[in-house]
## 1
Amino acid sequence: MTSIASKSYVLFPLGEQRFALPAESVTELARQDQLHTFPHRTPLLSGVLMRRGRVIPVCDVAQVLVGPDAPARKFYLLASYRAERQQELMAIPVTSECELANAVAHPPVDGSPAYIRGTLPLGEETISIVDLEALLAREVLG
Amino acid sequence: MKRPVLPAAQPESRESVIIFFVAGHKFLISASAVKEIRGTEGMTPFTMAGVLRRLEKLQYTLERQGITYFVIDAARHFSLPASRPSRLLVFRNSPVAILADTTDRMVEISAIHGLPEAFSHEEREWYRGLALIGQEVAPVVNPGAFLGRLEQEVLRDELERLRGATTL
């Protein structure tokens, strides 16, 4: 199997499972902040955070990655993603603190959803690398 | 590291907005868009839900000073649970009024933050953006989204057909 790349990844927990995002896309891990909610129709978005005078959407990816029974999320992982017209920040609720790891990425397992862009074999654990844009496109566009 | 571009606050001059509530949610509307805030008395039942499903939110008309206003249930417009409206916000430059549960004070906002692009559904039409009121964020509604021009024309035609006379 050919490796994709050797890079730094932020590993984030959602209950018993961990997932990864490229470290270059992650800007901050923040404690729970006040979530501001308002009526809207976009799936997965639970509201917005105000951080340093900016509005940051909160995207609860746990609903897709681990299902509706994900344990309470205690931190926000702030990551950038390519929106339709520009790069935006997004807050992803995670269940506990994150870890930085350097690893060689491998292609996704056959049959993986399109939002899994690869895997990281770390010891006995295989961690899925999440493609935020693909995940949002799947949920938002169907 | 590539720095993401965030939706920045629009550099607008200060704007007076009215706070109103629907089904437990706080909304803001530009004070300049509202002609009158009043009770719900005097409304006449009127529906076209059987013709246009999108117009289920229209439930009444209101006659004021020779103008027929189409009354929109804001809870239905925002797909919220049915609420108990007690106030009517009559719009200034449009034959539209909206039913809200309650209205609060008028406040000044200094900026409207663009809705992040992640919000990609009807809310992009519903809202002009988000504003900070104290420590809370609330959406600033787009008055023109409650009833589009085409919908107004359809309704006027239907109203004229029912009355057999020009109403507006």
## 2
Amino acid sequence: MGSRPSLVEVLDVSRAFATPEGEVRALDGVAFDVRAGEFLAIVGPSGCGKSTLTMLIAGLLRPTAGAVRINGRVVDRPQTDLGIVFQNPVLLAWRSALDNVLLQIEMRGLDPRRYREAARQLLGSVGLEGFEHRLPHELSGGMRQRVAICRALIHDPPLLLMDEPFGALDALTRDQMALDIQGLCTRGGKTVLFITHSISEAIFLADRVIVMTPRPGRVDAVVEVALPRPRRLGVREEASFAAYARRVRDRFLAHGVLRDLDGGAGP
Amino acid sequence: MRWRRWGPPLATVAVALLAWEGLVQLRGLPEYLLPPPSGVLTALGSEWRYLAPHALVTLGEILAGFLLSVLVGIPLAMLIVASPLLERAVYPLLVASQSIPKIAIAPLLIFWAGLGIAPKILVAFLIAFFPVVIDTVVGLRSVEPEMLHLARSMGASPVKVFLKIRFPHALPSVFAGLKVAVTLAVVGAIVGEFIQADRGLGYALLQANAMLNTRLSFATILILAAIGTVLFLLVDWMERLLIPWHASRRLEAAAGTL
């Protein structure tokens, strides 16, 4: 896997925000890369600048210092060769599931008629067959987020940015979504940056997990996850999975993000 | 479902009318103080030919004032949202200008705009226009930032973002403004006619009051109320037609099926 070229390079990126209480540093000298075709998860506590990172990579925000490169080119404007999924599905209330997916196509000035069938298939592949013509308020939270994911994939982008996409969903729905995402992304050879605060979600989905420190966010550790694919839900009960989870959790204990019962900071 | 919606207010009106009629008949109140509802209805029937032309004049003023407030208010709101400079230059003044009671400047408007229906339209417009601007601005601003981020990542032009996202998103708020505006336009037209007019329901009302013809006053007010209600329902109907997906509509639909 180490031989894969980098699709995204995050080069010593810092980002500060001005607030009434003074300057807040969200990210401080963050450096990592996302290799082509890899599923990279970033896990960190709330407020560690994970979402800021998504915005910087998408070109929706400029770094205070450092740079982001995609395919070797410095990101200095909003990037269009990618798909984004936020925690909030932000669907248009007056459009059906299908038309929400096709928004991506219309906004790009492409012909939505040519993508209708693809959009239908994509919705079907995440279990939304028969729901194509429902309005968002007629769908459950999980279904809405599936529509948002299809919208991020319909133009077949090489890079998918997901910012806590399961954050607002219940535990069972999260499990199903994790399986769906694995199917969608690993089959299509997509490069995925997946941001979460769930350790087990990160390990279940990712080839590599980047652990962030509390604010200001820095890269604390990188954990390679060598579990075979496709991964079934049961993998989470296996010893190897538990070992990976412990490595990530230990980093959180070391930084005081988590405090165990005896106040210890791990082994 | 219809009965659930219209039944309770109609029942209240019926009870109030009966009580009113009974009070007048039993206490023997003089006509010029409080005519019985039956008397008002009689006046409405007998003075119909006199009142109808006045009603048409006032209706015309209301509609013109309201349409003008929409035609000026919505584009102005769009400009305010599109241009931060314009927003800083205009928006605070607009809000501050609302502390001026429109009724107080109505005589000046008549003075400037002359006789005829133009000054009445102007007063109706000035009163109705503010909620249109404010609610449209609020609506256009209410789009989630994530949606706008997504639109940028889709490489969409600002025009497309406006047409496909911002404007439809603003419609529920715009209609809330239009409902207030159409009601205020009625007030504006009548205020204009009160100050100076030789036609219109406001004029008819002043004439009836001057002659202590209370029956006719009530009949005129009844027509005014009917005009206001019908116009409001018309805007409401358009809202249903244009934004069936809107949340408050859905709640209503859900309540209706209970």
